[in-house]
Amino acid sequence: MIACTYVNTAPKDRREPDFTDAQADFAQKKSLCLMTTMQLLCMYRDLELGKLEPDQLRNRIIETNGRLPGFELEPARAKV
Predict the structure, then answer these.
(1) For residue 45, with 0-12 CB atoms within 10 Å meaning exposed, 13-18 middle and 19 or more buried, which class applies?
(2) What does the H/E/C string look like for 27-77?
(3) What's residue 75's pLDDT?
(4) Which of 17, 20, 37, 61 lies in disulfide reach of 4, CB 3.0 to 4.6 Å?
(5) Is residue 72 within 8 Å of residue 37, measured between CB atoms?
(6) What is the pLDDT of residues 20-63, one digit of tens each?
(7) Cα 39 to Cα 17: distance, rounded to the nearest angstrom
(8) In this predicted model, what pLDDT tens digit does every residue of 1-23 receive, in sequence order?
C-alpha cells in the first residue's frame, strides 16, 4: 500500500511517523507493505543511481509486512 502522507508538510518539517502503530499492526497482520510516496521517489533515485538492483528492491517489498524500513530522503548537501 502506497500512501502520500503529510502532503502539505515539507519532508524536513515532519516530526510524526508516516503511519500510526494501528495502521502498521493491521498491515502486518494482513501481510501488506506500507510505504510512502517519498520512499517510492527514493527507490527510483536509488535505482537510477545504481545503488540498488531491481530484484533487491522487489524482494524487500515482497518480504515486508508492515512499515517498509529505509529509503529515506537524505539531507541536501551545502554547496561550497
Answers:
(1) middle
(2) HHHCCCEEEEHHHHHHHHHHHHCCCCCHHHHHHHHHHCCEECCCCCCCCCC
(3) 57
(4) 37
(5) no
(6) 999 999 999 999 999 999 999 999 999 999 999 999 999 999 99
(7) 13
(8) 899 888 888 878 888 888 999 99
Contact indicator for 50, 7 with CB cutoff of 8 Å: no
One-letter amino acid of 59? N
Per-residue cell: 38: 517519498
Q: What is the C-alpha radius of gyration for the chain, rounded to an integer number of angstroms?
A: 14
Q: How confident is the model at residue 78 (pLDDT cuts 50, 70, 90)?
A: very low
- Please give the DSSP secondary-structure letter assigned to residue 8: T
